[in-house]
Amino acid sequence: MNKADTAFILAASGLVLLMTPGLALFYGGMVRRKNVLGTIMQSLILISLISMEWVYFGYSMSFGPDVGGLIGDLSWFGLATVTNVPSLDYATTIPQNVFMIFQCMFAIITPALITGAFAERVRFVPFLLFAVLWSILVYNPVCHWVWGKGGWLGGLGVLDFAGGLVVHATCGAAALAGVLVLGNRRGYGRSSFMPHNLPMTMLGTGILWFGWFGFNGGSALAVDGVAVTAFIATHLGGMAGMFMWVVMEWITQGKATTLGAASGAIAGLATITPTAGFVGPNSAILIGLFAGLLCFLAVNAKSKMGLDDSLDVVGIHGVGGVVGTICLGLFASTEVNPAGVDGLFFGGGMVQLGKQLFGVVVVVAYAFTVSWVLFKGIHSFMGMRLDADAEVEGMDSTEHSETAYNN
């Protein structure tokens, strides 16, 4: 056991956990005031719910002994045999239970990201059922395919440094399925849905950006040059995404907005995530610029398509995760990370790009299909949507008997 590596990953785990309340603030500021507590609660409760699922099912399914390249078995149910002894397969310089808790934080925030797509219109209890089933049926298998020992996509050479496929592509695909099944908010396209508290959203952006250094930097799983590379790439990707989004606002609207700056930063951070440990600083900036441009265009296209992805999960996380995963096949360099690959622009040819594209197609198709079935099934049997009166009154009152503001 390396004490420095262990301390680093423990700190990174705390940073990644902080991202979930940061996300709650980010989303909470963008909804109407009658839904702010309900929106925050959808993220906050997953710290409890998914941690429980991770202990008993998730960690073993994701990283346990392989079954046919598809899933881990349940021999680590309840963290059986997961101790302070390093694993022979994962992060060999830190205790396995430290690796476990680091990965737990990823499992928590991924379904929380989906909630922005159906903000302001979903009942609390059916949402909890969806979150648990989605984690078991989508997140855990995809995590094993890509990161688990023996996982079939990882075995084919598909790479994902910190979650472009496992986190962002899966949640983006699920978000699209949710919007299609549950439909638009009442009054969408006719009523105002302006954010009620953009300073709250900006605070959430800062917390997310801060936590992202643990998300990506910690994914090196050691205090080494790859961690430094990932840390720098994370910041540069985020700032470039913010820059490009604001430029696009100036070009198309004549004004830059704080919401646009926040959205661009998150787009850049999401897009650099799968490549962070494999690319140098100039490539990271280019990827961030691509993120700001393509995610901006995707978000602006949703209204033309009539899709009420309330808080732009598909356009930012889904598109960002896909773009970043593909960019790995273009910009990865073994000069940056000898354990990685050379992408197309660094002499590697089309091989890795083809693998990344294959990974995108498989993961997005699987996550969308299973998510659609879950949304459709739960909505049919329990009713995920708020009824008309409850949606008008707001989730805070009808689902939680609370109000955020008493004046």
Would you write up a description of this structure?
The chain has 407 residues and is mainly alpha-helical. The chain has a single domain, classed as Orthogonal Bundle (Ammonium transporter fold). The protein contains 14 helices and 2 strands. Strands 1-2 form a two-stranded antiparallel ribbon. Strand 1 (66-67) and strand 2 (71-72) form a beta hairpin. The longest helix has 31 residues, at 351-381. The radius of gyration is 20 Å and the shape is globular.
Summarize the structure.
The protein has 407 residues and is an all-alpha fold.
How would a crystallographer describe the biggest sheet?
2 strands, antiparallel
CATH topology: Ammonium transporter fold
CA(first)-CA(last) distance:
55 Å
- Rounded Rg: 20 Å
Count every helix, treating DSSP H or I runs of 4 or more residues as helices. Answer: 14
Helical content (DSSP H or I, runs of 4+): 55-70%
Strand order of the largest sheet: 1-2
Unreliable runs: none
State the total count of DSSP E strands.
Answer: 2
Shape: globular
Question: What order do the SSEs take from the amino end to the carboxyl end, as H and E?
Answer: HHEEHHHHHHHHHHHH
CATH class: Mainly Alpha
CATH architecture label name: Orthogonal Bundle
**What percentage of amino acids are in beta strands?**
under 5%
Please, what is the CATH homologous superfamily?
Ammonium transporter AmtB like domains
Mean pLDDT: 97
Supply the helix-strand structural class: mainly alpha
